[in-house]
Write a structure and sequence with these properties.
This protein is α+β, with helices and mostly antiparallel strands and 299 residues long. It has two domains: 166 residues, no CATH class; 56 residues. It contains six helices and 13 strands. The strands form three sheets. The chain has a five-stranded mixed beta barrel. A four-stranded antiparallel sheet has the order 5-4-10-9. A hairpin with a 2-residue loop joins strand 4 and strand 5. It starts with a helix and ends with a helix.
Length: 299
């Protein structure tokens, strides 16, 4: 008995919608509960590990940034450029390019400062601009034209830019670590192994330092010298790091935990996640109903 290819496609789409909606619903519900249960920590007294911080963005280290589409000064940016496409009755916006900045951010609260590496974060900024133009890369004056330009009438490209600015409030959820200030301990075996791995990347240099008999290889005694030198190097690096000023960092967690940076507060974020979970539940239900209907129809 021949199977209708259209039926198979429909079953696949309905099944994917049901599974994807269910996964999204459970994920957003779990994240909403996590946000509601996590206590807010002060930077100075935050425990090492997964924490929730709330403060104000400040100008951090490095060169000041300018947003690529508008040229406005900011601390972080993200943009998208889309092109309007028509194919018969089908009309849609197709993504042409997108990017986001990778510079570190500086968050301050009443107790101290923390540097944030935004790579891998779900960033929800307060500032978002969208406009249209007739060039792939917009001119800044495109944003200040006639009403028709602002509404995108006759325009082929759409530009979307989001930014974080100094003085913006920021809710941050991620992996917190403190270096320097004599706070970090030393795992000597792990630190020694890391130094040896680093030296092995330049094996010729390693031979030049420790190959005493010049035979182009390291024997057991020479490897013992390598490990002893690596241990001393690891101890020197630890002393130097411990003597450096204390510095706090926030980054993406190694575990499968949310890494969030948002100008919205905890309650507003949790509420948005619950609405998104409801959308996922409706998609899951719709996919399941469609799957049941297709199976009944194909029976």
């Amino acid at each position: 008995m021949a199977v209708d290819p259209g039926l198979l496609v429909g079953l696949g789409m309905a099944g994917a919608a049901s599974l994807g909606g269910g996964w999204w619903c459970l994920r957003r519900l779990a994240q909403a509960r996590l946000l509601e249960d996590m206590p807010t920590s002060k930077i100075r007294s935050a425990a090492q590990g997964y924490v929730e911080l709330y403060g104000v963005l400040q100008a951090g280290p490095g060169e000041p940034l300018s947003a690529p589409l508008t040229g406005k000064p900011c601390l972080w940016w993200r943009y998208r450029i889309e092109e309007y496409r028509e194919s018969g009755k089908s009309k849609s916006w197709r993504l042409l390019e997108s990017a986001s900045s990778e510079g570190w951010l500086s968050l301050a609260d009443s107790s101290g400062q923390c540097l944030i590496n935004p790579l891998g974060a779900e960033v929800r900024p307060a500032r978002r601009e969208s406009w249209h133009g007739d060039r792939r890369h917009p001119r800044r004056e495109d944003r200040h034209g006639l009403l028709g330009q602002l509404l995108g009438m006759g325009k082929r490209y759409r530009y979307i830019e989001e930014r974080l600015h100094a003085g913006d409030p920021l809710y941050a959820l991620g992996e917190f670590r403190t270096s320097g200030g004599g706070r970090q301990g030393l795992d000597l075996a792990a630190a020694q192994a890391a130094v040896v791995r680093e030296w092995k990347q330049d094996f010729q240099g390693l031979l030049g330092r420790f190959d005493r008999d010049g035979n182009g290889a390291l024997d057991d005694q020479e490897w013992r010298l390598v490990r002893l030198a690596a241990q001393l190097e690891a101890e020197d690096r630890h002393r130097a790091a411990s003597g450096a000023p204390e510095q706090n960092h926030l980054r993406r967690p190694q575990e499968a935990l949310p890494f969030l940076l948002s100008c919205k507060g905890e309650d507003e974020l949790a509420r948005a996640f619950r609405w998104q979970a409801l959308g996922g539940a409706l998609l899951c239900l719709g996919g399941a109903l469609a799957l049941t209907w297709l199976l009944t129809r194909g029976a």
